[in-house]
Amino acid sequence: MMEVKDSNGTLLNEGDSVSIIKDLKVKGSSSVIKRGTIVKNIRLTDSEEEIEGKVEKSMMVLKACFVKKA
Fold it and tell me: Cβ(25)–Cβ(17) under 8 Å?
């Protein structure tokens, strides 16, 4: 089984809430996800470095190293 860990090494599970630890530019867009943004009900992907979550009404894939468990 794959283990997905946040920036602090805490294990992440399906349905967890995480918070963004630094401002992130959105690829292919001029928008930025601000530090401190909460992403609720995350989903794990096939990669242990990435999670999926709804940010500002759209699904995005986020690198696990830029989030911490809320």
Answer: no
